[in-house]
Amino acid sequence: QLQLQESGPGLVKPSETLSLTCNVSADSFSSRSYYWGWIRQPPGKGLEWIGNISYSGSTYYNPSLKSRVTMSVDTSKSQLSLKLSSVTVADTAVYYCARGVPITSGGAFSDIWGQGTMVTVSS
Amino acid sequence: DIQMTQSPSSLSASVGDRVTITCRASQSISSYLNWYQQKPGKAPKLLIYAASTLESGVPARFSGSGSGTTFTLTISSLQPEDFANYHCQQSHSLPFTFGQGTKLEI
Rounded to an integer, what distance in angstroms lies between the CA atom of residue B57 and that of residue A16? Predict the structure, then answer.
């Protein structure tokens, strides 16, 4: 059973860079049938799509965050990473990684999610 | 970006009730609509994708319908474990935006 596990600092200072990793168990990480997404959820609020990355490293970033986001994959470690620079208190959220499944007829969905990791931006 | 709007934002119901949550897109998204359930402190769980396809293992009391700009999630007979937050998400165009969520409570 595929599992995703986010990890990283729970506290980041304003203006610094938030760095998270997502470890992916099982073989699906190397499959070209999937992509990998990062989603966040501020306390008490809805979900926000940060971006996604394919096994080959092709990325899409939400335009609202594009200037500050970098995603990468480390296939040797079956690991994803997310970096968000110049953080502010507005970036305080639970950050999730998730497996994305494209649908042949169009669209996609995220079927497996990590448990999430809370990141607080505060001095 | 495509804006997704859910209604109601919160809903009180009882075990055994039939409930419907609506999700509207700011433009047509065909049937590229997903529904997730989220319990407090937990990650979202996929319920339905492509507007009406039930994810494996999800009880048949959950159903989805709609196309274009208006979609519904229906729970035919609420069970105690169904009290949670529900989110819709469009996958027609990146970024794959979510609705603001609907809190289903007793």
Answer: 42
Which of A103, A109, A115 lies nearest to residue B43, judging by beta carbons?
A115
- Is 90 exceeded by the pLDDT of residue A29? no
Q: Which class for B31: exposed (0-12), middle (13-18), buried (19 or more C-beta within 10 A)?
A: buried
Please report the pLDDT score of residue A112 as a whole number: 96
**d(Cα B7, Cα B22) in Å, to the nearest integer?**
5
Provide the sign of the torsion angle of the four alpha carbons A86, A88, A91, A97, taken in this order. positive
Contact with chain B for residue A115, Cβ under 8 A: yes
Q: Contact B1/A111, CB-based, under 8 Å?
A: no
Beta strands A117-121 and A11-12, pairing class: parallel
Residue A25 is predicted with a pLDDT of 83
Cβ pair B96:A105 closer than 8 A:
no
Q: Which residues of B touch A (CB under 8 A)?
A: 1, 30-34, 36, 42-46, 49-50, 55, 87, 89, 91-92, 94-101
pLDDT > 70 in chain A, percent: 98
Contact between residue A51 and residue A71 where contact means Cβ atoms under 8 Å apart: yes
pLDDT tens figures, A88-112: 999 999 999 999 999 988 899 999 9
Residue A98 is which amino acid? A
What is the number of H-type helices and E-type strands within chain A?
Answer: 0, 11
